[in-house]
Structures are given as C-alpha cells and as structure tokens.
Design a protein that fits this description.
alpha+beta, Beta-lactamase, five-stranded antiparallel sheet, two-stranded antiparallel ribbon, 13 strands, extended
C-alpha cells in the first residue's frame, strides 16, 4: 500500500531545502558584490587621493632636473650712462647754428646748441630717401635712364643709362641729385607717393619736427632739427647697405651714351682724412649744402670702449668748418665724459 502522507512530507522538506539553497546563493552573490564594490571604491578613492601628490612629486623631479640642465642667468639690463667728468664746452666757439652730440645707447644729450631750431636739411635729406628706397627692395643690377633734367648736378646727365647700384652709390658717395631722384622714380612710386612715405617714416621714427618735400634736399622747404637728424643718422646706419656706401671714399661710373667714365670722391672730408682726426671708429656720415642751409654734416663715431655717439652740425660757415666742428665736439666728448 502506498503511503501518500510520507511522500508529501518528503516533498515538503525538499522544497524547503531548495529555498534555503536559493536564499544562501543569493546572499553569497549579494555580499560578494558588496565586498567587490567596497574594494573597488576604496581603490579608486585611494588613487584619486594619491594622484595629485604623485603628479606633484614627478613634476618636482622633472623641474629640478630641467633647472639643473637649463639654468638661465639674466644679467641686469642697466646701461652705463655717460657722466661729465671734465670741463664744459663753450657753444660760442662754433660757427654752426645748431649742434647736438647724443649717446646712442642711452639717448643722453652730451652737447647741444639750438638743437630744436628748424633748419633746411639740404642733402642730408638723401638719407631719408635711401631708407624709403630700401623698403622697395629694388633690383640693383637693373638699369634705367637718368631723369630730372632741370636739377643741378655735376656727376651725370639726363638720358644717361646706369644701373640702380650706380645711382645708389652716386647719390650717397658723390651726393648726386639726379641719381637720387631717378632712383626714387625707378622703385615704382610716384613723386607724391614717395614724398608722402618720407614724411610718414619720419613720424614713425619720432622725427616730429621734420618735413620733406623732395628726395634730393635741394628744396629749402626740407626742414628738420639737429635733434631729429641725430635720430635719422642713427637709423640710417643700422642698414648695412647705407653704412657700406657712406664709407666708400670714391666711386666711378661709366656712361654708355657718352662713352665716358666719371670719377667722384666722397663729400665727407673726415672719411677721406682731409680733416685730421683721432677717432677709434668712424662709422659714416652725410653732408648737405644749399645757400639757405649753410654747411651741414651728420656722423656717427665710437671710442675704443665701444661707446657710440651721433653728432649733427647744421649751418656751419664753411665746408671745412662743418667737419672740424663735428670732430671737435666728438673729441671733447671722448675726453670729458665717462660711462658709469
């Protein structure tokens, strides 16, 4: 006989056992996941907390190594200022109407006489013209015909053909008026545009008392001051092209049309040694003369210690005086100033 009651009891026990196993398994999974989550969160937490310190430590190590390998020592940028240690110079001993001597590095005025008086610049104007011409980067080997038939000139004739290099050298060595005007026209600007650029560049350089009306300087309405022209000569001699040319003692051109050579000496008598001087380093100059300006001269020179000064002489009485007076001012500076 079958015992159905026993079978039911057995089935009930098995059912309870299965439920217990399920609950136990679920509990184990739950606590396992909980433990894993806590472990992972703690690890992430530790990493988050320690990461900045790790980066900081590594960064410090790298910076220390770089500092040892690439240490840069910046020297103080205090220029040595010229200080008058000797006797003052009497302005009345000079025939020039305006004079200035200026230290290049510090801008200190070392000697002055009517340095802000406006006067005709004459051919010193050619330095500004040269700066403007260089902005156009001309092809120096190309040729052009001389223009400006009505200009006074002893070096060339209108209609002669020369290279732009010949015209450049003639303008700055022999101070040829036709050469500089022809060259100004050859670079692609009209006369009005060229003059406008001359005046604009003067403003850019801080030459606030200067006006230019033609490239040659023959017009007496080209005016400036000794103070402004000290800026001009300093800027001009930054150009190696200008500096090299104004230090040429002589130059020769050849006219194919007239089949004739023409030799010219520099107008700078200090460069030629016709006015004696004891300069350790003469870096170049430019002359200028028309009747209304008198004899003008700008120059740059340096002593054995490398101190550079710009000297401007305007309205000297004679050709010789502009050079001798510029020399005397410079030599007085070297003998009476110390750079401290």
């Amino acid at each position: 006989m079958l015992n159905f009651l026993a079978s039911e009891q057995k089935n009930d026990f098995c059912s309870k056992l299965d439920r217990f196993r399920s609950i136990l398994a679920a509990s184990l999974v739950f606590f396992g996941l909980l433990f894993f989550a806590i472990y992972k969160n703690q690890k992430v937490y530790n990493e988050i907390v320690s990461f900045p310190e790790t980066v900081k430590t590594v960064s410090n190590i790298i910076n220390q190594k770089l500092a040892r390998k690439h240490t840069v020592v910046v020297a103080p940028q205090n220029p040595k200022f010229p200080v008058l240690s000797g006797s003052a110079l009497d302005v009345d001993k000079f025939s020039a109407k305006s004079i200035i001597a200026k230290d290049q590095k510090t801008g200190v005025v070392l000697f002055k006489k009517n340095e802000y008086e406006k006067r005709p610049t004459a051919s010193i104007t050619k330095l500004m013209s040269a700066l403007v011409i260089l902005e156009k980067n001309p092809s120096w080997a190309s040729s052009t015909r001389v223009t400006a038939e009505d200009l006074i000139d002893t070096h060339m004739y209108a209609g002669d053909t020369y290279t732009l290099e010949d015209l450049w050298n003639s303008a700055l060595v022999g101070s040829s008026n036709k050469a500089i005007v022809t060259l100004s026209e050859a670079v692609g600007w009209s006369k009005e545009e060229f003059i406008a650029r001359m005046n604009q560049k003067a403003k850019e350089l801080g030459m606030s008392d200067s006006v230019f009306v033609d490239p040659s300087g023959l017009d007496p309405n080209n005016v400036s001051t000794a103070s402004d022209l000290a800026i001009l000569i300093n800027e001009a001699l930054k150009s190696e092209k200008i500096k090299k040319t104004v230090l040429m003692k002589e130059y020769t051109i050849y006219s194919k049309e007239r089949k004739q050579k023409h030799h010219m000496w520099s107008t700078d008598w200090l460069l030629l040694g016709w006015i004696t001087n004891d300069f350790a380093d003469f870096r170049g100059g430019k002359t200028g003369f028309i009747t209304l300006s008198g004899y003008n001269f700008v120059m740059q020179t340096a002593d054995a210690g490398g101190h550079v000064i710009n000297v401007v002489v305007l309205g000297a009485d004679t050709n010789e005086a502009r050079f001798s007076e510029a020399r005397d001012v410079a030599e007085w500076v070297w003998g009476n100033y110390k750079w401290e």
